[in-house]
């Protein structure tokens, strides 16, 4: 059911990412010009994506004339236009995501934009033979180290789909900071001796399993989702 939307979501997410990058660069240029004209104005206090801050920046530029001021005004106008475009794309993303994957959106820390990135990058989920295959594709499957001193240890994967990995990382960090099943699992791993980075990788691995289950069956119950966090697989204790 989701596959027909994955291409559309990937295009929309990529478009939004491009617009955000452009807006960020334009914002930095505008702030540098404002600071050049008025070094007493703290640049960090102006968030030019907000209309009230755009008005404040225009007021700061009002007494100034010349090329630098003109360019700054043009850039503020560009930022305002880019923000409108970004908001429009985000609304389109929400309209597609909300009815197609309510179970994915129910994951703590997975908002519409993160869900859209997952759906766009995972695409045809049937191509994954198992949730372990999906985890390898996302770059969150642990890789065993086999040497005289490190036998049994797992190291971080350096391959995989980095966009999908980033989406899983967003969910993991949100759960660890704000509470949820991921936080409980993280604390358990740390208590068992894992370092911070190792524990985060374990949380991401569990989240990838949760996400995979949501992709293959978007309408299953939350009780099914909770089972992902119970226990530990016998074949791989790091999972």
Automatic annotation (TrEMBL):
Q: Name one GO biological process term.
A: DNA transposition
Q: Which InterPro entries match?
A: Transpos_IS110, Transposase_20
Pfam families attached here? Transposase_20
The name this protein goes by in its record: Transposase IS116/IS110/IS902 C-terminal domain-containing protein
The residues covered by the Transposase IS116/IS110/IS902 C-terminal domain are 103-187
Q: Which GO MF terms are attached to this record?
A: DNA binding; transposase activity
């Amino acid at each position: 059911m989701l596959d027909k939307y994955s291409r559309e979501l990937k295009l929309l997410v990529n478009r939004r990412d491009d617009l955000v990058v452009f807006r960020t660069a334009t914002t930095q240029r505008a702030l540098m010009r404002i600071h050049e004209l008025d070094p007493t104005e703290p640049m960090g206090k102006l968030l030019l994506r907000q209309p009230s801050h755009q008005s404040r920046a225009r007021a700061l530029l009002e007494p100034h004339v010349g090329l630098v001021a003109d360019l700054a005004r043009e850039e503020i106008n560009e930022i305002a236009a880019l923000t409108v475009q970004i908001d429009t794309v985000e609304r389109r993303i929400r309209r597609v995501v909300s009815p197609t994957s309510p179970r994915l959106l129910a994951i703590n820390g997975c908002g519409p934009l993160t869900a859209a990135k997952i759906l766009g990058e995972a695409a045809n989920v049937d191509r994954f033979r198992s949730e372990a295959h999906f985890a390898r594709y996302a770059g969150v499957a642990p890789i065993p180290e086999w040497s005289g001193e490190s036998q049994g240890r797992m190291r971080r994967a350096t391959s995989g789909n980095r966009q999908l990995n980033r989406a899983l990382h967003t969910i993991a960090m949100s759960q660890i900071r704000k509470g949820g099943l991921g936080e409980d699992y993280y604390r358990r791993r740390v208590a068992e001796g894992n370092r911070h980075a190792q524990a985060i990788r374990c949380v991401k691995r569990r989240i990838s399993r949760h996400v995979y289950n949501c992709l293959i069956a978007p309408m299953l119950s939350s009780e099914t989702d909770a089972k992902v966090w119970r226990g530990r697989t016998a074949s791989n204790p790091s999972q």
